[in-house]
Amino acid sequence: MTKTSLPETTTRAQLRGYGASEYLAIAITKTLTPIGKEKVFKLYSLKQVVENIREYLKRSRIAPQTRLTLTRLLEVLSKRLQNVIPAAFGQGSDPALSQLSRAAHSKLLEINTHINKLKGQSATIKGKSNARRQRN
């Protein structure tokens, strides 16, 4: 496994930072194969984690609080996925406007990627601090 920092990955610590309990973070990722490692944390595909949460939510015997936590977690992680629909910028009548539109779209994607990476780092820090508090 290689060290990577893709925004399309998540760790158990991040899941805890987003509100999942340690048990729930393990239950969600138990069947997944890590796609990499960052320091001591195993990286899981964000898309696979979202799919596992959806499968977990299909179970009939889930406590209401757990269902609420999973729903919130699903919302947050779904926002982190890079679902980009290609736009036809070159079909406009003004070439300068088309070029500016492409440049703006490119910068927007760059910024969104950076924001998602920062949100993931924030969740990791929050997950680590929550785990330390629970031990003490």
UniProtKB/TrEMBL annotation:
Q: Which domain of life is it from?
A: Bacteria
| Naturally occurring in which organism (per UniProt) | Gloeothece verrucosa (strain PCC 7822)
Q: What is this protein called?
A: Uncharacterized protein
Keyword set, alphabetical order? Plasmid
The organism's lineage is: Bacteria, Bacillati, Cyanobacteriota, Cyanophyceae, Oscillatoriophycideae
